[in-house]
Design goal:
- Helices cover 10% and strands 36% of the residues.
- It is built from two helices and nine strands.
- The protein has a five-stranded antiparallel β-sheet with strand order 8-7-6-3-9, with no helix packed on it. A two-stranded antiparallel sheet has the order 1-2. It has a two-stranded antiparallel ribbon with strand order 4-5.
Length: 109
């Protein structure tokens, strides 16, 4: 049988006195809730608009080529930056071009 000790990892119960006494017990005496909480993997943050989502601009914006895209224009998200803090959006009409926009400047279309 094995046990888990913070800072020591997994050890056989017979090698550690704190675990040896519970070797015959049917209850788990391993990792505490605090240790499990500390070691857990953080969930991946999902962006508000995943790639290939159709979005609309909430205000006028300027493309990478210097052309102004009017508010309300629809485009497609082609890249997500900083877990959804900014998006690369491709527009086909009324203006053709790409631009990077913060999440506050977009809405689902």
């Amino acid at each position: 049988m094995i046990g888990i000790l913070p800072g020591r990892g997994i050890v056989p119960r017979r090698w550690h006195p704190a675990l040896a006494e519970s070797a015959t017990s049917s209850t788990f005496t391993g990792m505490s809730f605090e240790t499990m909480h500390t070691l857990r993997k953080a969930p991946d943050a999902s962006p508000l608009f995943p790639e290939l989502s159709v979005v609309a601009t909430l205000r006028d914006a300027v493309t990478d080529d210097g052309v102004t895209v009017p508010a309300g224009s629809r485009g497609t998200v082609v890249a997500v930056y900083a877990a959804g803090a900014a998006y690369e959006v491709e527009f086909a009409r009324p203006i053709i071009g790409n631009m990077t926009l913060p999440v506050e400047a977009l809405a689902a279309a």
